[in-house]
Amino acid sequence: MEFAKQEYEFLSEIGLSPETPGCFVNGKWKAHGPTVSSINPANNQKIATVVEASLEDYEEGMKACSEASKIWMELPAPKRGEVVRQIGDALREKLHHLGRLLSIEMGKILPEGIGEVQEVIDMCDFAVGLSRQLNGSVIPSERPNHMMLETWNPLGVVGVITAFNFPCAVLGWNACIALVCGNCVVWKGAPTTPLITIAITKLVSEVFERNKLPGAIFTSFCGGAEIGQAIAKDPRISLVSFTGSTKVGLMVQQTVHQRFGKCLLELSGNNAIIIMDDADIKLAVRSVLFAAVGTAGQRCTTCRRLLIHESIYQTVLDQLVDVYKQVKIGDPLEKGTLLGPLHTPESRKNFEKGIENIKSQGGKILTGGSVIESEGNFVQPTIVEISPTADIVKEELFAPVLYVMKFQTFEEAVKINNSVPQGLSSSIFTRSPENIFKWLGPHGSDTGIVNVNIPTNGAEIGGAFGGEKATGGGREAGSDSWKQYMRRSTCTINYGNELPLAQGINFG
After folding, report:
1. Looking at the DSSP assignment, which residues form a beta bridge with residue 264?
2. Cβ pair 426, 403 in contact under 8 A
3. Cα 35 to the chain's mean position, in Å?
4. 160: phi > 0 → left, psi -120 to 50 → alpha, else beta; which?
5. Where are the transmembrane segments (predicted)?
């Protein structure tokens, strides 16, 4: 069978077909759940069909994965790193095909699609180095002839539930580290991006096969809430990493914690950029455009709120409205396109509802504010002048909508920044060392990512990624995030002949 459109024929080069089973269990491709279609958001036409996992498929996969974990965790960490290195090379070889698929299925522009796959490759490289640095500590003991050690061991199986907006990068942040730490991985990709899930899994599974290792070490499922709930409830899965909405994340957390499992949450963001009166305005305007319009406003690190000092408010606003009107909207594969479609028709409807709510709460549309009549899910990039106390400003509208507001003092700006339930990313534009260090300090931004003179998005993998409050508190990718995927043991060794506390007692 051939793909309906010639432009999709390249998908066969990354192991995809027009009809395909959507789960990899016990080293085999199979699926017995419902059949779904992968849709191109630029025209809402079908790319291919995928059979999702049933609960029976899930159980078969988990049994095999649990068994495989005994083999994988016994492999020395540097050897596991070598396998992950090969995964990076396999992805590198298919980088442009995978990036193109990501753009077609998710809707982000081609440079972003390629960049996202590159991020997984970079995570593989990072994890290879990490595989030789899973170090514990030697701790001074207060007892004579005793030594204390801190050791790290694998958890066993890690579940990764990813969202549509970064369908493979978030997997990379988790799976690359989980694998070198000695864990098997169970991945449930987003229901609306099944082809990316399948394509990545095919490349990963081929690497395990070449190394004569069980395919079940990396088990994946295309599926909906039923499979996600099964992962959350499963006591065989020691850690569940969930990326998605705060509402669903809270339910996942409660379910996992009821069985005393571990949870790593990456939830909503409602990120602000502050532009002080001493800022480089041209740099700030370019950064705001990149942060607010990139990925059609569907990043968790998208800039949602723009706080401008009153003395430069109109100057910044005029420049921003001008550049917004120059944004090229259209086919994400076409060179020069800056704004692709929203991911689903439902996202487009949510945009329309959001604009109605904005107007009802006193918001003034400065530019944009409308859907674009087409086959796809296109909307205009939108700037709204609104009060920071409006209820809708506290919510995350997952679309290219930017709320602008003015402030008088640094302290007022920080208060507005911190006034929302979410706490992922934030940025300030200023030349003042005093403001910079206040911003980074305990009375500054309360987000997990705190930037100066750069946008709220575009985080590097070397740092820990994640946020506070309703963003969930999770940390992925760099720094010491690897510790979440392992269990810590404090070990005390008595290498002498005495037990100090037992001196003076005659044991016969």
Report:
1. 241
2. no
3. 26
4. beta
5. none
Q: Distance (Å, rounded) from C-alpha 276 to C-alpha 105?
A: 39
Token pair 């120059």 is at which residue?
Answer: 326
Count of CB atoms within 10 A of residue 359's CB? 14
Separation CA 75–CA 134 (nearest Å): 14
Q: What is the pLDDT of residues 288-335, one digit of tens each?
A: 999 999 999 999 999 999 999 999 999 999 999 999 999 999 999 999
CA-based nearest residue to 92, from 131, 130, 38, 128? 128
Residue 149's alpha-carbon distances to 48, 334, 484, in angstroms, are 53, 57, 19
Could you give the C-alpha distances from 199 to 11, 49, 83, 370, 470, in angstroms and in order? 9, 14, 18, 35, 32
Domains of the chain: 6-267+472-489 (3.40.605.10), 271-460 (3.40.309.10)
Closest CA to 288 of 277, 299, 302, 298: 302
- Rounded to whole angstroms, how far apart are CA atoms 106 and 168? 11
Number of alpha carbons in the 13 Å side-chain half-sphere of residue 122: 16
Q: How far is CA 139 from the centre of its chain?
A: 35
- The whole-angstrom separation of Cα 409 and Cα 471 is 27
**Could you tell me which residues come within 8 angstroms of residue 101 by beta carbon, excluding any fewer than 6 positions away?**
11, 14, 16, 113, 195, 196, 199
Structure tokens at 8: 């999709």
Catalytic site residue from 105, 266, 396, 476:
266
CB atoms within 10 A of CB 180: 30
Pair of tokens at residue 68: 């495989």
Dihedral sign from CA coordinates of 472, 477, 124, 108? positive
Report residue 336 CA to chain centroid gap: 26
CA angle 169, 351, 381 (to 5 degrees): 75
**Confidence (pLDDT) at 507:** 63
Per-residue pLDDT tens for 85-118? 999 999 999 999 999 999 999 999 999 999 999 9
Mean pLDDT of 157-161: 98
Q: Residue 51: in which H helix or E strand, if any?
A: strand 45-51
- Helices in 11-109 by DSSP H: which ranges? 55-72, 77-93, 95-106
Which of 254, 73, 217, 213 is closest to 155 using CA atoms?
A: 73
Predicted confidence at residue 502, as pLDDT, reads: 58
In whole angstroms, what is the distance from residue 191 CA to residue 34 CA? Answer: 11
266 is annotated as an active-site residue? yes
The residue to which tokens 């689903």 are assigned: 344
3-state secondary structure of 265: strand
